[in-house]
Design a protein that fits this description.
The complex is a heterodimer of chains A (265) and B (297). By secondary structure, chain A is an alpha/beta fold. Chain A contains 8 helices and 10 strands. Helix content of chain A is 36%, strand content 24%. In chain A, the strands form 2 sheets. Chain A has a 6-stranded mixed beta sheet with strand order 6-7-8-3-9-10, sandwiched between helices. A 4-stranded antiparallel beta sheet of chain A has the order 2-1-4-5, covered by helices on one side. Classes of the chains: A alpha/beta (265), B mainly alpha (297).
Amino acid sequence: MTAYLKLDHIDKHFDRGGVRAEVLKGINLSISKGEFVSIIGHSGCGKSTLLNLIAGLTPVSVGAVLLENREVNEPGPERAVVFQNHSLLPWLSVYENVNLAVSKVFGNTKSKAERHDWVMQNLDLVQMAHAKDKRPSEISGGMKQRVGIARALSMEPKILLLDEPFGALDALTRAHLQDAVMEIHARLGNTMVMITHDVDEAVLLSDRIVMMTNGPAARIGEVLDVPIARPRNRIELASDRTYLRCREAVLKFLYERHRFVEAAE
Amino acid sequence: MPATARKQTIATAPASPSNGHVVALQVRPPARYDLGKIAASVSRNVVPPLVVLAILLAIWQVLCSSPTASLPSPLQVWQESYDLIAYPFFNYGSQDIGLGWRVIVSLQRVAYGFGLAAIAGVVIGAIIGQSAWAMRGLDPIFQVLRTVPPLAWLPLSLAAFQDSNPSAIFVIFITSIWPVIINTAVGVRNIPQDYRNVAQVLRLNQLEFFWKIMLPSAAPYIFTGLRIGVGLSWLAIVAAEMLTGGVGIGFFIWDAWNSSRLPDIIVALAYIGVVGFALDKLVAATGRLITRGASAN
């Protein structure tokens, strides 16, 4: 298994006023091409920080992030991010939001007509082409997140980073979007890294689940393989033995061995 | 909020004709009710100011109607300055022109001075807002400078420009630029980190970031600054023109005072007030038009 994305002995600490806050310690992880990896942990364990490190939005303190054996230390469209709160620009329409990314990334390589087709193709992929002229304030939270995914996909990223993408959505909308992400993953074969705190979501979507210990100085506690064949169906999986075993393993990790200590916060 | 309100009226509109097919009479009452509502809202908003204005004019009339009164009464103003009130755009020669022309001359100066202040203010504010250090260093200086009264700049600018017209424009510029700078800087500092992250992932360069993220995101703040700025510049121009001369509305007041035409001064004050009010509303409306949707998330 060759590593496509490699996190090599990463530490992350924040220094503020002479006080050093250790957030992540000794993170080693290799992700191969086309893999779907979830990172799960209690809130405050630094999983969002880890995603920001991969995205390049936060610099690493020690170690390196390697993509195809090249170090990356600044943000770029080849590591597109689907942000937790969609982060669509409210003054642009749905179409313009995606087009901003497309014209920036493909401004020199695609003609205007090709760029238009590419925007529409990505909006179609998340079934949002019908709302292309709407402003973000005029569509629902789930639709906004779909557009956020379309914007990220339109950059043709090597790695798609999803930062708790469905955290702010209701259960039904979340299920729809999870199906949409699975379908996109099946169709495009993207490498995806998703932050989540939802055990079912992690097991349903992932090839591997990375479980983080509690901070400060959080580590990777355990990595769980999810050997369930794709395409996966949430209803069939509800009684699937492998699914239940994986689910139990994650729950045990989170609630028995690394119980979230509220008093420590 | 306005967007949802609009949506609701659109949504209900097609529903009422379909009701109308069943009972024809039902279509009309809502329409009449709407008209009534508009009339009611107009009377609610227009009648009180008119009544208060009438009362104030009446009090003024009573107070100034004695022969020994030092100020003219409203009736006297109407009689003696009727040509100024009724014909804003007459033109009988270099200094004998309608107040409308004078206001336009003053507005031109404001347009130059305030236009420059708006552009420079937004650019400087954007630079300052991007840097915490510049903000900390320059903010106290700006807070001091912005309290300097407009006319205090006039002698300096007369000395620097050696001419009255550019001096007047400079006074407007220097008066109105501070609120634009300060508000733009605050708006830029308040750009949500999310938008900055988007810009970073897309690798927008400085110029693209300025046009595509910074300006739209800070627009509500910028327009607050512009609105304060345009009010200040209108204050400044009248005062500056009283000293520099020329054809503006400010000089007209000074001229009228020197020739003891008090009713003319009162008419000019009304012009200045109405134009200032209109400028304020104009900038506010432009701001609403441009920032529509930018604040709603």
